[in-house]
Protein backbone atom coordinates (compact mmCIF):
# COMPACT_ATOMS: atom_id res chain seq x y z
CA UNK A 1 0.00 0.00 0.00
CA UNK A 2 1.28 3.45 -0.80
CA UNK A 3 0.08 6.99 -1.44
CA UNK A 4 0.84 9.20 -4.39
CA UNK A 5 3.18 12.11 -3.82
CA UNK A 6 3.47 15.15 -6.17
CA UNK A 7 6.39 13.91 -8.29
CA UNK A 8 4.52 10.74 -9.21
CA UNK A 9 6.61 8.38 -7.11
CA UNK A 10 5.05 5.98 -4.65
CA UNK A 11 5.83 6.50 -0.99
CA UNK A 12 5.63 3.42 1.21
CA UNK A 13 4.14 4.22 4.61
CA UNK A 14 5.01 1.74 7.36
CA UNK A 15 2.07 0.68 9.51
CA UNK A 16 2.49 1.05 13.24
CA UNK A 17 2.11 -2.60 14.22
CA UNK A 18 4.60 -2.80 17.11
CA UNK A 19 2.77 -2.61 20.44
CA UNK A 20 4.26 -1.70 23.81
CA UNK A 21 4.56 -5.44 24.58
CA UNK A 22 6.34 -6.03 21.24
CA UNK A 23 8.68 -3.12 21.95
CA UNK A 24 9.65 -4.57 25.32
CA UNK A 25 10.37 -7.90 23.62
CA UNK A 26 12.52 -6.26 20.95
CA UNK A 27 14.60 -4.43 23.55
CA UNK A 28 15.18 -7.55 25.66
CA UNK A 29 16.01 -9.65 22.60
CA UNK A 30 18.46 -7.04 21.30
CA UNK A 31 20.41 -6.57 24.54
CA UNK A 32 20.62 -10.12 25.88
CA UNK A 33 23.42 -11.77 23.94
CA UNK A 34 26.78 -13.44 24.31
CA UNK A 35 27.98 -10.91 26.91
CA UNK A 36 26.22 -12.58 29.83
CA UNK A 37 28.16 -15.79 29.09
CA UNK A 38 31.61 -14.14 29.12
CA UNK A 39 31.35 -10.86 31.09
CA UNK A 40 30.69 -12.34 34.58
CA UNK A 41 34.31 -13.53 34.70
CA UNK A 42 35.50 -10.09 33.54
CA UNK A 43 33.58 -8.30 36.29
CA UNK A 44 34.78 -10.71 38.98
CA UNK A 45 38.45 -10.67 37.87
CA UNK A 46 38.65 -6.95 38.60
CA UNK A 47 36.64 -6.92 41.86
CA UNK A 48 37.30 -10.39 43.36
CA UNK A 49 34.12 -9.77 45.35
CA UNK A 50 30.74 -11.46 44.95
CA UNK A 51 28.80 -8.54 46.44
CA UNK A 52 30.71 -5.88 44.48
CA UNK A 53 30.16 -7.84 41.26
CA UNK A 54 26.41 -8.02 41.81
CA UNK A 55 26.27 -4.30 42.69
CA UNK A 56 28.19 -3.47 39.49
CA UNK A 57 25.70 -5.51 37.44
CA UNK A 58 22.86 -3.50 38.99
CA UNK A 59 24.71 -0.22 38.33
CA UNK A 60 25.40 -1.23 34.71
CA UNK A 61 21.66 -1.78 34.24
CA UNK A 62 20.87 1.66 35.71
CA UNK A 63 23.53 3.38 33.59
CA UNK A 64 22.29 1.65 30.42
CA UNK A 65 18.72 2.75 31.24
CA UNK A 66 19.80 6.39 31.56
CA UNK A 67 21.71 6.11 28.28
CA UNK A 68 18.71 4.56 26.52
CA UNK A 69 16.49 7.45 27.66
CA UNK A 70 19.01 10.01 26.34
CA UNK A 71 19.19 8.18 23.01
CA UNK A 72 15.38 8.10 22.84
CA UNK A 73 15.47 11.92 22.77
CA UNK A 74 18.32 11.93 20.24
CA UNK A 75 16.67 9.36 17.97
CA UNK A 76 13.29 11.10 17.85
CA UNK A 77 14.73 14.61 17.31
CA UNK A 78 17.42 13.53 14.79
CA UNK A 79 15.56 11.07 12.57
CA UNK A 80 18.31 10.36 10.00
CA UNK A 81 19.95 6.93 10.07
CA UNK A 82 23.46 6.29 11.36
CA UNK A 83 23.16 6.34 15.16
CA UNK A 84 26.08 8.08 16.90
CA UNK A 85 27.49 9.10 13.51
CA UNK A 86 24.31 11.02 12.63
CA UNK A 87 23.94 12.60 16.09
CA UNK A 88 27.54 13.85 16.19
CA UNK A 89 27.26 15.06 12.57
CA UNK A 90 24.18 17.14 13.40
CA UNK A 91 25.60 18.62 16.61
CA UNK A 92 29.27 19.16 15.74
CA UNK A 93 29.68 18.81 11.98
CA UNK A 94 31.45 16.44 9.58
CA UNK A 95 34.95 16.13 11.13
CA UNK A 96 33.86 14.75 14.55
CA UNK A 97 31.35 12.51 12.75
CA UNK A 98 34.11 11.23 10.47
CA UNK A 99 36.30 10.45 13.50
CA UNK A 100 33.38 8.47 14.99
CA UNK A 101 33.04 6.29 11.91
CA UNK A 102 36.85 6.06 11.64
CA UNK A 103 37.19 4.53 15.11
CA UNK A 104 34.18 2.32 14.38
CA UNK A 105 36.02 1.06 11.30
CA UNK A 106 39.37 0.42 13.02
CA UNK A 107 38.49 -0.26 16.69
CA UNK A 108 34.87 -0.63 17.83
CA UNK A 109 33.27 -2.92 15.25
CA UNK A 110 36.25 -5.24 14.55
CA UNK A 111 37.00 -5.63 18.27
CA UNK A 112 33.35 -6.41 19.07
CA UNK A 113 33.30 -9.07 16.35
CA UNK A 114 36.57 -10.56 17.62
CA UNK A 115 35.27 -10.69 21.23
CA UNK A 116 32.08 -12.52 20.30
CA UNK A 117 33.98 -14.87 17.94
CA UNK A 118 36.48 -15.69 20.71
CA UNK A 119 33.58 -16.38 23.06
CA UNK A 120 32.31 -18.84 20.45
CA UNK A 121 35.77 -20.44 20.33
CA UNK A 122 36.02 -20.77 24.13
CA UNK A 123 32.64 -22.48 24.43
CA UNK A 124 33.22 -24.88 21.52
CA UNK A 125 36.64 -25.99 22.87
CA UNK A 126 35.90 -26.04 26.61
CA UNK A 127 33.93 -29.38 26.70
CA UNK A 128 37.01 -31.16 25.34
CA UNK A 129 39.20 -29.77 28.16
CA UNK A 130 36.98 -29.93 31.27
CA UNK A 131 39.85 -30.05 33.79
CA UNK A 132 42.24 -27.51 32.27
CA UNK A 133 42.42 -24.38 30.13
CA UNK A 134 41.81 -25.06 26.42
CA UNK A 135 44.69 -24.36 23.97
CA UNK A 136 44.56 -20.69 23.04
CA UNK A 137 45.57 -21.39 19.45
CA UNK A 138 42.53 -23.66 19.09
CA UNK A 139 40.28 -20.91 20.46
CA UNK A 140 41.71 -18.34 18.04
CA UNK A 141 41.48 -20.75 15.09
CA UNK A 142 37.81 -21.48 15.77
CA UNK A 143 37.12 -17.75 16.15
CA UNK A 144 38.76 -17.13 12.76
CA UNK A 145 36.74 -19.94 11.14
CA UNK A 146 33.54 -18.49 12.63
CA UNK A 147 34.31 -15.02 11.20
CA UNK A 148 35.21 -16.37 7.75
CA UNK A 149 32.20 -18.69 7.44
CA UNK A 150 29.74 -16.00 8.51
CA UNK A 151 31.35 -13.42 6.22
CA UNK A 152 30.87 -15.85 3.32
CA UNK A 153 27.21 -16.41 4.27
CA UNK A 154 26.64 -12.65 4.55
CA UNK A 155 28.16 -12.21 1.09
CA UNK A 156 26.01 -14.94 -0.45
CA UNK A 157 22.52 -14.16 0.84
CA UNK A 158 20.69 -11.66 3.04
CA UNK A 159 17.93 -14.26 3.51
CA UNK A 160 20.35 -16.88 4.86
CA UNK A 161 21.83 -14.27 7.16
CA UNK A 162 18.43 -13.45 8.65
CA UNK A 163 17.54 -17.14 9.06
CA UNK A 164 20.74 -17.70 11.06
CA UNK A 165 19.85 -14.71 13.22
CA UNK A 166 16.30 -15.93 13.89
CA UNK A 167 17.30 -19.54 14.70
CA UNK A 168 20.27 -18.76 16.94
CA UNK A 169 18.55 -15.96 18.89
CA UNK A 170 16.39 -18.53 20.71
CA UNK A 171 19.52 -20.41 21.86
CA UNK A 172 20.71 -17.64 24.19
CA UNK A 173 17.32 -17.35 25.90
CA UNK A 174 17.04 -21.11 26.41
CA UNK A 175 20.58 -21.29 27.86
CA UNK A 176 19.83 -18.44 30.29
CA UNK A 177 16.56 -20.00 31.45
CA UNK A 178 18.33 -23.31 32.16
CA UNK A 179 21.17 -21.56 34.05
CA UNK A 180 18.88 -19.38 36.20
CA UNK A 181 16.43 -22.16 37.18
CA UNK A 182 19.21 -24.67 37.95
CA UNK A 183 21.27 -22.11 39.89
CA UNK A 184 18.39 -20.85 42.01
CA UNK A 185 17.37 -24.44 42.81
CA UNK A 186 20.99 -25.10 43.87
CA UNK A 187 20.81 -22.12 46.26
CA UNK A 188 17.40 -23.15 47.68
CA UNK A 189 18.65 -26.62 48.62
CA UNK A 190 21.29 -25.01 50.84
CA UNK A 191 24.43 -24.46 48.75
CA UNK A 192 25.46 -20.96 49.89
CA UNK A 193 29.13 -21.61 50.69
CA UNK A 194 30.34 -19.42 47.80
CA UNK A 195 28.55 -16.41 49.31
CA UNK A 196 30.64 -16.31 52.50
CA UNK A 197 32.53 -13.03 53.05
CA UNK A 198 30.89 -11.48 49.96
CA UNK A 199 32.49 -8.03 50.34
CA UNK A 200 36.10 -9.21 50.37
CA UNK A 201 37.84 -7.97 47.22
CA UNK A 202 39.52 -5.13 45.35
CA UNK A 203 37.97 -1.66 45.40
CA UNK A 204 40.52 0.61 43.72
CA UNK A 205 39.03 2.99 41.14
CA UNK A 206 40.90 1.53 38.17
CA UNK A 207 39.69 -2.03 38.85
CA UNK A 208 36.10 -0.90 39.38
CA UNK A 209 36.11 1.02 36.07
CA UNK A 210 37.43 -2.03 34.17
CA UNK A 211 34.80 -4.21 35.88
CA UNK A 212 32.16 -1.79 34.58
CA UNK A 213 33.54 -2.21 31.05
CA UNK A 214 32.87 -5.95 31.17
CA UNK A 215 29.41 -5.48 32.69
CA UNK A 216 28.39 -2.81 30.21
CA UNK A 217 29.59 -4.98 27.32
CA UNK A 218 26.80 -7.42 28.23
CA UNK A 219 24.25 -4.55 28.03
CA UNK A 220 25.44 -3.58 24.54
CA UNK A 221 22.56 -2.68 22.24
CA UNK A 222 20.63 -0.21 24.41
CA UNK A 223 21.70 2.64 22.08
CA UNK A 224 19.78 1.08 19.16
CA UNK A 225 16.39 1.10 20.88
CA UNK A 226 15.07 4.18 19.09
CA UNK A 227 15.26 2.41 15.70
CA UNK A 228 11.77 0.95 16.27
CA UNK A 229 9.98 4.31 16.57
CA UNK A 230 8.73 4.41 12.95
CA UNK A 231 6.67 1.25 13.46
CA UNK A 232 5.88 1.63 17.18
CA UNK A 233 2.31 2.47 18.17
CA UNK A 234 2.14 5.84 19.98
CA UNK A 235 5.97 5.92 19.97
CA UNK A 236 6.50 9.04 22.04
CA UNK A 237 4.70 7.45 25.00
CA UNK A 238 5.53 3.79 24.41
CA UNK A 239 9.26 4.16 23.75
CA UNK A 240 10.11 5.55 27.23
CA UNK A 241 7.66 3.04 28.75
CA UNK A 242 9.31 0.18 26.89
CA UNK A 243 12.72 1.31 28.16
CA UNK A 244 11.52 1.59 31.76
CA UNK A 245 9.94 -1.89 31.59
CA UNK A 246 12.59 -3.75 29.56
CA UNK A 247 15.81 -2.42 31.08
CA UNK A 248 14.95 -3.42 34.69
CA UNK A 249 13.87 -6.83 33.37
CA UNK A 250 17.22 -7.35 31.62
CA UNK A 251 19.04 -6.18 34.75
CA UNK A 252 17.09 -8.66 36.93
CA UNK A 253 17.79 -11.50 34.48
CA UNK A 254 21.52 -10.66 34.50
CA UNK A 255 21.72 -10.43 38.30
CA UNK A 256 19.87 -13.74 38.67
CA UNK A 257 22.20 -15.39 36.14
CA UNK A 258 25.19 -14.13 38.12
CA UNK A 259 23.69 -15.39 41.38
CA UNK A 260 23.36 -18.79 39.72
CA UNK A 261 26.99 -18.68 38.52
CA UNK A 262 28.33 -17.69 41.96
CA UNK A 263 26.30 -20.38 43.71
CA UNK A 264 27.79 -23.18 41.58
CA UNK A 265 31.20 -21.95 40.37
CA UNK A 266 33.94 -21.27 42.93
CA UNK A 267 35.86 -17.99 43.00
CA UNK A 268 39.04 -19.63 41.68
CA UNK A 269 37.15 -21.30 38.83
CA UNK A 270 35.43 -18.03 37.97
CA UNK A 271 38.73 -16.16 37.75
CA UNK A 272 40.55 -18.82 35.74
CA UNK A 273 37.97 -19.60 33.05
CA UNK A 274 36.09 -17.08 30.88
CA UNK A 275 33.64 -19.80 29.72
CA UNK A 276 31.84 -19.63 33.07
CA UNK A 277 28.59 -21.18 31.78
CA UNK A 278 30.52 -24.27 30.60
CA UNK A 279 32.00 -24.74 34.10
CA UNK A 280 28.47 -24.24 35.51
CA UNK A 281 27.17 -27.05 33.27
CA UNK A 282 30.02 -29.38 34.27
CA UNK A 283 29.19 -28.95 37.96
CA UNK A 284 25.42 -29.48 37.72
CA UNK A 285 24.48 -31.53 34.68
CA UNK A 286 27.04 -34.36 34.59
CA UNK A 287 26.78 -36.25 31.28
CA UNK A 288 24.42 -33.57 29.95
CA UNK A 289 26.91 -30.77 30.62
CA UNK A 290 27.53 -30.40 26.86
CA UNK A 291 24.06 -28.82 26.49
CA UNK A 292 25.08 -25.42 27.90
CA UNK A 293 28.23 -24.92 25.74
CA UNK A 294 26.28 -25.95 22.63
CA UNK A 295 23.51 -23.41 23.25
CA UNK A 296 25.99 -20.65 24.15
CA UNK A 297 28.10 -21.42 21.05
CA UNK A 298 24.99 -21.18 18.87
CA UNK A 299 24.10 -17.88 20.56
CA UNK A 300 27.55 -16.38 19.97
CA UNK A 301 27.55 -17.64 16.38
CA UNK A 302 24.35 -15.68 15.83
CA UNK A 303 25.92 -12.70 17.65
CA UNK A 304 28.89 -12.57 15.29
CA UNK A 305 26.46 -12.79 12.39
CA UNK A 306 24.47 -9.79 13.62
CA UNK A 307 27.52 -7.59 14.20
CA UNK A 308 28.96 -8.45 10.76
CA UNK A 309 25.63 -7.65 9.09
CA UNK A 310 25.24 -4.23 10.72
CA UNK A 311 28.94 -3.25 10.52
CA UNK A 312 29.13 -3.74 6.77
CA UNK A 313 26.07 -1.57 6.25
CA UNK A 314 27.37 1.15 8.57
CA UNK A 315 30.53 1.44 6.45
CA UNK A 316 28.43 1.38 3.27
CA UNK A 317 26.43 4.33 4.65
CA UNK A 318 29.67 6.18 5.42
CA UNK A 319 30.85 5.60 1.83
CA UNK A 320 27.59 6.93 0.44
CA UNK A 321 28.12 10.09 2.50
CA UNK A 322 31.66 10.45 1.08
CA UNK A 323 33.31 9.63 4.44
CA UNK A 324 34.60 6.18 3.48
CA UNK A 325 36.24 4.82 0.30
CA UNK A 326 33.71 4.49 -2.52
CA UNK A 327 34.17 0.72 -2.84
CA UNK A 328 32.51 0.27 0.57
CA UNK A 329 29.21 1.28 -1.06
CA UNK A 330 29.39 -1.49 -3.69
CA UNK A 331 26.62 -4.09 -3.49
CA UNK A 332 26.39 -7.36 -5.43
CA UNK A 333 24.19 -7.00 -8.52
CA UNK A 334 21.91 -9.96 -7.74
CA UNK A 335 22.43 -10.79 -4.06
CA UNK A 336 22.35 -7.13 -2.90
CA UNK A 337 25.05 -7.74 -0.30
CA UNK A 338 27.90 -5.27 0.47
CA UNK A 339 30.72 -7.71 -0.36
CA UNK A 340 33.70 -5.28 -0.17
CA UNK A 341 32.53 -3.92 3.21
CA UNK A 342 32.03 -7.43 4.56
CA UNK A 343 35.44 -8.56 3.36
CA UNK A 344 37.23 -5.56 4.89
CA UNK A 345 35.36 -5.94 8.19
CA UNK A 346 36.34 -9.60 8.37
CA UNK A 347 40.04 -8.91 7.68
CA UNK A 348 40.29 -6.21 10.40
CA UNK A 349 38.49 -8.51 12.87
CA UNK A 350 40.93 -11.34 12.10
CA UNK A 351 43.82 -8.99 12.93
CA UNK A 352 42.28 -8.51 16.40
CA UNK A 353 42.69 -12.25 17.05
CA UNK A 354 46.39 -11.81 17.80
CA UNK A 355 45.21 -12.18 21.41
CA UNK A 356 42.70 -14.67 22.78
CA UNK A 357 42.19 -12.64 25.98
CA UNK A 358 38.62 -11.42 25.65
CA UNK A 359 38.87 -8.99 28.56
CA UNK A 360 41.92 -7.21 27.14
CA UNK A 361 39.90 -6.60 23.98
CA UNK A 362 36.87 -5.37 25.97
CA UNK A 363 39.07 -2.89 27.85
CA UNK A 364 40.77 -1.82 24.61
CA UNK A 365 37.63 -0.79 22.77
CA UNK A 366 35.33 0.24 25.65
CA UNK A 367 37.10 3.51 26.41
CA UNK A 368 36.78 4.66 22.80
CA UNK A 369 33.17 3.48 22.61
CA UNK A 370 32.09 5.31 25.75
CA UNK A 371 33.92 8.45 24.70
CA UNK A 372 31.83 8.52 21.48
CA UNK A 373 28.63 7.85 23.46
CA UNK A 374 29.51 10.75 25.75
CA UNK A 375 30.10 13.06 22.78
CA UNK A 376 26.65 12.13 21.42
CA UNK A 377 24.96 13.03 24.72
CA UNK A 378 26.96 16.28 24.96
CA UNK A 379 25.66 16.94 21.44
CA UNK A 380 22.10 16.48 22.71
CA UNK A 381 22.66 19.12 25.42
CA UNK A 382 24.37 21.43 22.90
CA UNK A 383 21.44 21.14 20.46
CA UNK A 384 19.02 22.09 23.26
CA UNK A 385 20.83 25.44 23.42
CA UNK A 386 21.86 25.90 19.77
CA UNK A 387 18.62 24.64 18.18
CA UNK A 388 15.92 24.96 20.86
CA UNK A 389 13.08 24.94 18.33
CA UNK A 390 13.70 21.61 16.59
CA UNK A 391 10.95 19.07 17.35
CA UNK A 392 11.66 17.00 20.47
CA UNK A 393 8.79 14.53 20.90
CA UNK A 394 10.70 12.96 23.80
CA UNK A 395 12.58 15.29 26.14
CA UNK A 396 14.22 13.75 29.19
CA UNK A 397 14.74 15.51 32.50
CA UNK A 398 17.99 17.50 32.42
CA UNK A 399 19.31 15.57 35.43
CA UNK A 400 19.44 12.30 33.44
CA UNK A 401 22.05 13.33 30.82
CA UNK A 402 24.21 15.05 33.45
CA UNK A 403 24.27 11.97 35.72
CA UNK A 404 24.99 9.80 32.67
CA UNK A 405 27.85 12.07 31.55
CA UNK A 406 29.43 12.08 35.04
CA UNK A 407 29.42 8.27 34.99
CA UNK A 408 30.90 8.19 31.47
CA UNK A 409 33.56 10.69 32.53
CA UNK A 410 34.66 8.31 35.28
CA UNK A 411 34.65 5.36 32.85
CA UNK A 412 36.87 7.23 30.38
CA UNK A 413 39.21 9.20 32.68
CA UNK A 414 40.01 6.63 35.40
CA UNK A 415 41.30 3.90 33.00
CA UNK A 416 43.26 6.60 31.15
CA UNK A 417 45.19 7.23 34.39
CA UNK A 418 45.60 3.59 35.42
CA UNK A 419 46.23 2.16 31.93
CA UNK A 420 47.68 4.97 29.78
CA UNK A 421 49.09 2.61 27.12
CA UNK A 422 45.72 1.44 25.75
CA UNK A 423 44.38 4.98 26.07
CA UNK A 424 47.30 6.34 24.06
CA UNK A 425 46.79 3.74 21.32
CA UNK A 426 43.08 4.56 21.07
CA UNK A 427 43.67 8.31 20.96
CA UNK A 428 46.43 7.91 18.35
CA UNK A 429 44.15 5.82 16.11
CA UNK A 430 41.34 8.35 16.48
CA UNK A 431 43.59 11.36 15.76
CA UNK A 432 45.09 9.59 12.74
CA UNK A 433 41.69 10.12 11.13
CA UNK A 434 42.19 13.91 11.03
CA UNK A 435 44.76 13.98 8.19
CA UNK A 436 42.78 11.26 6.42
CA UNK A 437 39.67 13.45 6.62
CA UNK A 438 41.40 16.54 5.22
CA UNK A 439 43.21 14.63 2.48
CA UNK A 440 40.44 12.31 1.36
CA UNK A 441 37.19 14.08 2.28
CA UNK A 442 37.67 17.82 2.76
CA UNK A 443 40.14 18.35 -0.09
CA UNK A 444 37.93 18.77 -3.14
CA UNK A 445 40.46 19.81 -5.82
CA UNK A 446 42.46 16.61 -5.83
CA UNK A 447 44.92 15.99 -8.69
CA UNK A 448 43.77 13.93 -11.66
CA UNK A 449 46.14 11.09 -10.69
CA UNK A 450 44.19 10.59 -7.43
CA UNK A 451 40.90 10.21 -9.28
CA UNK A 452 42.48 7.84 -11.80
CA UNK A 453 43.94 5.66 -9.01
CA UNK A 454 40.72 5.57 -6.95
CA UNK A 455 38.71 4.89 -10.11
CA UNK A 456 40.94 1.93 -10.94
CA UNK A 457 40.42 0.46 -7.45
CA UNK A 458 36.66 0.98 -7.71
CA UNK A 459 36.43 -0.69 -11.12
CA UNK A 460 38.66 -3.56 -9.96
CA UNK A 461 36.40 -4.20 -6.97
CA UNK A 462 33.31 -3.97 -9.17
CA UNK A 463 34.66 -6.65 -11.53
CA UNK A 464 36.08 -8.83 -8.76
CA UNK A 465 32.87 -8.91 -6.71
CA UNK A 466 30.27 -8.35 -9.48
CA UNK A 467 29.09 -5.27 -7.60
CA UNK A 468 27.50 -1.94 -8.51
CA UNK A 469 27.62 1.42 -6.75
CA UNK A 470 24.55 2.24 -4.65
CA UNK A 471 23.68 5.90 -4.10
CA UNK A 472 22.39 7.10 -0.73
CA UNK A 473 18.68 7.82 -0.65
CA UNK A 474 19.31 11.02 1.29
CA UNK A 475 22.55 12.87 1.97
CA UNK A 476 23.29 14.22 5.42
CA UNK A 477 23.67 17.90 6.06
CA UNK A 478 24.89 19.47 9.24
From TrEMBL:
Belongs to the amino acid-polyamine-organocation (APC) superfamily. L-type amino acid transporter (LAT) (TC 2.A.3.8) family. Pfam families: AA_permease_2. One of its GO terms (molecular function) is L-amino acid transmembrane transporter activity. It is a multi-pass membrane protein. It is found in: Cell membrane. This is Y+L amino acid transporter 2. The chain crosses the membrane at residues 20-38, 50-74, 86-108, 141-161, 173-191, 203-222, 243-264, 290-316, 337-358, 364-384, 396-417, 423-441. The keyword Transferase does not apply. GO terms for cellular component: plasma membrane.
